[in-house]
From TrEMBL:
It comes from the Bacteria. Residues 10-64 form the HTH cro/C1-type domain. Gene3D superfamilies: lambda repressor-like DNA-binding domains, SOR catalytic domain. This is Helix-turn-helix domain-containing protein. Keywords: DNA-binding. CDD domains: HTH_XRE. SMART domains: HTH_XRE. InterPro entries: Cro/C1-type_HTH (IPR001387), Desulfoferrodoxin_Fe-bd_dom_sf (IPR036073), Lambda_DNA-bd_dom_sf (IPR010982). SUPFAM superfamilies: lambda repressor-like DNA-binding domains (SSF47413), Superoxide reductase-like (SSF49367). Pfam families: HTH_3 (PF01381).
Length: 204
């Protein structure tokens, strides 16, 4: 660890939270002299204190150790760049519109990479009902193998629909032309379908 970088980051984050050295020290049950020592680069936090320190300052422990946050480029607002993440332990689903580090249940999650839906098991049937799309997926919906979510993404919006085991894999949502449909299978991953267009009856 570079103690100067780590100390500088601690100082910056502490001030962002409008905390004094004593405020931070009291929360960690240590002396404010220890906080002062860190911030002046005269020493680094003990490994046993890093977890609590990162929680209080609201920063990833890895970033705290490097002393750098390295912010992403500004989000340009194109929802089509959205990324999906799913926890293999609890099934929690998360999204981001830019580069990020996401963890759940103690695991660092990897971005789900979409695959083209080429096999029958992941094909969808699309019907138009009034101004809505009615989507059906002929897919097993058991607890260990089911469609967990369906997402429809256009340039400026995300329509996210959660599905659960033991129910039918079907849903209905308003037509938004020019978007892309994604389905997530708990066993085989994320599938990307062709754009839905008026008059479509079956899409792969």
């Amino acid at each position: 660890m570079d103690c100067n970088k780590v100390g500088g980051l601690i100082l910056r984050l502490r001030k962002e939270k409008d905390m004094t050295q004593k405020d931070l020290a009291d929360l960690m049950n240590i002396s404010d002299k220890t906080i002062s020592k860190w911030e002046r680069g005269l020493g680094c936090p003990d490994v046993s204190l890093l977890g609590e320190l990162s929680k209080i300052l609201g920063v990833n422990m890895e970033k705290l150790l490097t002393g750098e946050l390295n912010p992403n480029e500004q989000d340009r607002g194109n929802m089509k760049q959205i990324k999906f993440y799913a926890c293999p332990s609890c099934g929690n689903v998360m999204t981001s519109t830019g580069a990020t580090s996401i963890s759940c249940c103690g695991r660092l999650l990897k971005e789900l990479l979409p695959m083209p839906a080429e096999n029958d098991e992941h094909k969808i049937t699309v019907e138009e009902i009034e101004d809505d799309y009615y989507i059906t997926i002929q897919h097993e919906m058991s607890r260990d193998h089911h469609i967990s979510f369906v997402a429809y993404i256009s340039y400026d919006r995300l329509l996210f629909m959660k599905l659960y085991p033991e129910q039918n894999a079907e849903l209905r949502f308003p037509q938004m032309h020019g978007g892309t449909l994604y389905t997530y299978c708990t066993r085989h991953g994320l599938w990307k379908h062709e754009k839905l267009r008026k008059g479509t009856r079956r899409v792969t």
